[in-house]
Every structure is written in structure tokens, then in C-alpha cells.
Amino acid sequence: MLELDRIDRAILAALQKDGRLPIAKLAERVGLSETPCARRLKRLESDGYIEGYRALLARRRLELGVVAFAQVRFSVHDRALSDRFEREVQGIERIVSCHNVSGTADYLLQIVVRDLDEYGVFMRDVLRTLPGVTAVESMLSLREIKRDTSLPIS
Fold first, then answer.
1. Where do the HTH asnC-type domain residues begin and end (predicted)?
2. What share of the chain is helix, strand, coil (3-state, %, to 5)?
3. I need a surface site. Which of 24, 66, 85, 132 has the fewest CB within 10 A?
4. Low-confidence residues of the chain, pLDDT below 50?
5. Rounded to an integer, what distance in angstroms lies between the CA atom of residue 100 and that of residue 120?
């Protein structure tokens, strides 16, 4: 893995703010001509610093008004059961993030749904039926203060 220099970090920072930045504008922002900038960008992509590009969608415009965080607990800590749980979670689009965590819970899930009624149905019919789940504690987001938009690049 190569060490990132100031220009590499500037490219990454600029792309986190606007992933659709044309190469000419990107090169101008980081103080390079287009060809060396494009070469660096390709290298950052191939070396895995850039995993992909995507659009940030407006959750409310898509009528996804509720964000919930669910702490999921298992009573039996079996590797095969955890693997099944993790595989099933991958296929559930309402679960937008899943983390295996330390502490009193085994997993922390972030879930988006239309409303509280939909969340109740999701809890009953989906979340509580996942392999290994014995307890779920929910926390509802009242207001989003900061959105996951970028990583610190220093």
C-alpha cells in the first residue's frame, strides 16, 4: 500500500464532497494538469482507496421518515448462527448499516422505514425472525444532526 501524499489526500477530499467532479475541475482544485490527475485517480481507485461512487439520496423525498437503531442480542454465540444472520442482513434493504459491536449487544443496525407502523411490522415479521436474534432494543432518531458523508483525511 502506497503512502498518500498531500495531492492524493486533496483528490480524496474533493471527491468526497463531489464524486461527479469532472477531471478538469478536480485537477484544477488539486493543482495538477489533467493527465497526472487522472493517473493518480486511477491509482487511488485500483489501490482500493476509492471503493466506488454513489449518489446521496433524500430520505424524506423517498418517504422514509423514520430512522431507527436496533441493538440486537443473541443468547447463543455460535459462529454458524452469526454467519447466517449476517448473510440474511445483507439482503434486507431496509437495514442500511450493520455493525458487529462490543458491549451488551451483538449487532447494531440502522434501519429506515416509512413510518412507525411499518417499523412495528418490520420488527415483528423481519428483525425478530432473523437467525439467532433473542432480544432487540430500538432507539428512534428524533433528528439527524450529522450525516455520514465523509471520512477524515489527514
1. 4-67
2. 40, 20, 45
3. 24
4. none
5. 23
Residues in the chain: 154
Return the pLDDT at 14: 96
pLDDT tens, position by position, 116-151: 999 999 999 999 999 999 999 999 999 999 988 788
Set of cell numbers at residue 7: 495531492
Domain residues of the chain, as ranges? Answer: 6-46, 66-140
Question: How far apart, in whole angstroms, are the C-alpha atoms of residue 129 and residue 85?
Answer: 10
Q: How many CB atoms lie within 10 A of CB 54?
A: 7
Please say whether the structural domain 6-46 has been given the CATH code 3.40.50.10070.
no
The b-or-e profile of 55-85 (16+ CB within 10 A means b, else e) is: eeeeeeeeebebbbebbbebeeeeeeebeeb
The whole-model pTM stands at 0.86
